[in-house]
């Protein structure tokens, strides 16, 4: 009995650490996805998926194509490094500003303001880095990390000037949302620090008996960061999966590939690849089982008429049968997404009907000018 109790506790602890059990798909987002898949040509969807990462890929390759001079020649002749810093700071500041715009309710930032912010940050950060290099040492050790306080100070000052005093004070009054934004940015900064630190650790033990142990730290680091992101966005459940994919998984994939390139042990590389494949396989299997279970439940609720439909179509059909559920069951449903989505008139009407019979929803919404698909 004690062994069984211990196993159950271990299982509960493991499930609690799995962020894939915390995401919730809002009905608004479900309806938007169903309409998008029904009305969008396959070619357009493929082009959107393939074209979305192209700008950042072009930026990265353009930055890496810039030549670097010998550091011993001094900062004056190393123009390639400063152009790289300019591109990096401008891109990162734009990404941070977009997060600010979406995580603070009611904040309006025009495209022109974003462009001006990015340009000023690029010039200001580069100028500050050159000043530090000329007054201290060149190259600046761990430049990206050392210059983070300067970057944040410049960002706050420029935001204050661009948005004005009233808007800036309004941001600060929304304490909970502002703290969530700050925590989200700090988690990304933590990733920028922790993964290079891990890479340094791995390089120091490459070829030794500790190489496999260092490899096995990477999944642990990934799990910790995923849970930090999930905790930060705990009340925005439908944003958790995409944020984890485009932050933690992205960082992890890059450093996993980097570690494998410098690894000397075939056994260590094989072990980490097997662990990664097993994790992916288990996730896909859980999705498959959950989909089958949900389909069976939907067929029992709605009837066998949806037997040939996919899960998305079945879930969409379920929204029209909300009267079949008890009030307690409906209170567990998240109707509104944190972001408004483009919906048809029928979709908006259905959402209004569902809101009249459900519990807590995301009532704080943005203006339709920034609707997402």
In short:
With 373 residues, the protein is an all-alpha fold. The protein has helices at 2-17, 27-39, 42-51, 54-65, 79-103, 111-135, 143-146, 148-163, 165-173, 175-205, 211-232, 240-262, 266-302, 311-318, 327-330, 345-355. Helix 10 runs antiparallel to helix 11.
Which regions are unreliable across 5 or more consecutive residues at pLDDT < 50? 358-373
Radius of gyration: 24 Å
Number of strands: 0
Structural shape? globular
Indicate the proportion of strand residues.
under 5%
Count of DSSP-assigned helices: 16
How many structural domains can be distinguished in the coordinates? 4
Terminus-to-terminus distance: 51 Å
Helix content: over 70%
The description of the largest β-sheet is: none
Would you list the SSEs in sequence order as H and E?
HHHHHHHHHHHHHHHH
Structural class: mainly alpha
Q: What is the arithmetic mean of pLDDT?
A: 80
Keywords: Membrane, Transmembrane, Transmembrane helix
Q: Can you offer a commentary on this structure?
A:
The chain has 373 residues and is mainly α. It has 4 domains: 54-173, no CATH class; 178-264, no CATH class; 267-308, no CATH class; 325-373, no CATH class. The chain has 16 helices and no strands. It has helices at 2-17, 27-39, 42-51, 54-65, 79-103, 111-135, 143-146, 148-163, 165-173, 175-205, 211-232, 240-262, 266-302, 311-318, 327-330, 345-355. Helix 2 (27-39) crosses helix 14 (311-318). The N and C termini lie far apart (51 Å). Mean pLDDT is 80; it is low at 358-373.
